[in-house]
Automatic annotation (TrEMBL):
Signal peptide bounds: 1-18
Keyword terms, alphabetized: Signal
Keyword Signal appears in the UniProt entry: yes
Protein name (Swiss-Prot/TrEMBL): DUF4468 domain-containing protein
């Protein structure tokens, strides 16, 4: 009986490790590729971005507000036929505002762009842009303004939010998708 318990314990340990590793993995970049392969994928994403923005797409616009999260929130779904290819989300709170754009191919998020503007009521206003290039649900490049930065936990949050927004199209619960961290 002790041998059976040991076997069960080992199998459980391996399963637990695999589960934890799978949960952590989205914070890491995709499997290391050569610079040329990564540049080619980013070029492909940029081409898809340009195609989506050059297309005539059907738009569906929704407004929402959530105390402590957003004032005058707006979500716009862009569709090619019945397929969502782009979602924009914008809003403000206090002295700051933002516009986020999520791009999709075949139901998978491929690119994220965010522009944030804000600052104190009296003082310098700052503008920050953030880009995340995504392949197979993993960030392959992060940029802040024009500078490449290290892939971080925020990238995984962006990917999760992109999929929450797809679900929110059906539920219309935008505050749940955008204001709740989990």
């Amino acid at each position: 009986m002790t041998g059976l318990r040991l076997l069960f314990f080992l199998l459980f340990s391996v399963y637990s490790y695999a589960s934890v590793s799978a949960q952590i993995r989205p914070n890491k970049p995709a499997v290391a590729k050569s610079a040329n392969a990564q540049d080619a994928e980013i070029s492909n994403i940029r081409n898809l971005y340009n195609q989506i923005n050059a297309s005539t797409l059907k738009k569906e616009k929704f407004n929402y507000e959530a105390s402590g999260c957003v004032e005058e929130g707006e979500v716009i779904y862009f569709m090619n036929g019945k397929t969502i290819v782009k979602i924009t989300e914008s809003g403000s709170i206090g002295d700051g505002s933002w516009k986020s754009e999520y791009y999709y191919q075949s139901g998978k998020v491929i690119f994220y762009f965010e522009s944030m503007t804000g600052g104190p009521a009296i003082g310098k206003v700052t503008k920050t842009e953030r880009r995340v290039y995504i392949e197979n649900d993993r960030p392959i490049r992060n940029m802040e303004n024009k500078k490449i930065i290290k892939v971080d936990a925020r990238s995984a949050e962006v990917i999760q939010t992109a999929y929450k927004l797809l679900i929110a199209y059906q539920t219309k619960d935008f505050a749940a998708a955008l204001c709740n961290p989990n």
